[in-house]
Write a structure and sequence with these properties.
Order of helices and strands: HEHEEHEH
CATH class: Alpha Beta
Number of domains: 1
Helix content: 25-40%
Number of helices: 4
Strand order of the largest sheet: 2-3-1-4
CATH architecture: 2-Layer Sandwich
Shape: globular
Distance between the termini: 50 Å
Number of strands: 4
Strand content: 35-45%
Largest sheet: 4 strands, antiparallel
Radius of gyration: 19 Å
CATH topology: Alpha-Beta Plaits
Amino acid sequence: MHNGALDENVDFLRRKRPVMPHTLWVIKTTLPKSWLEAEVGSFAQSLLESGAACIHHHLITSTYTWEDKIQSEQEWAVEIKVSKANKNEVLEKLENTHPYDVPQIIVQECVSSDSYGEWVDSQ
């Protein structure tokens, strides 16, 4: 069965893709599950005060090798959105206050919608 209205909507979306000209940075890290959500929130607030625009956090399960043993435990996943102008200050704060001996700190350059990128840049 062929749905003409659906085909028209798909065609419209293909032609009207949003322009994605803004560059921003996404920093990913993890924190111990032993931290209460309020502690994670306080950590996030300190990063916001250092220039981060937005921070998401949620519980995950990580599996990894540590000291020659396979480990699997819950942690807080933290994703930080930041402008190029504020990236180094946020990274410095993260590195200086992170509780792990060997923290996971992954930095990715990303493109975003124009309006979101402008908002990130304004923070």
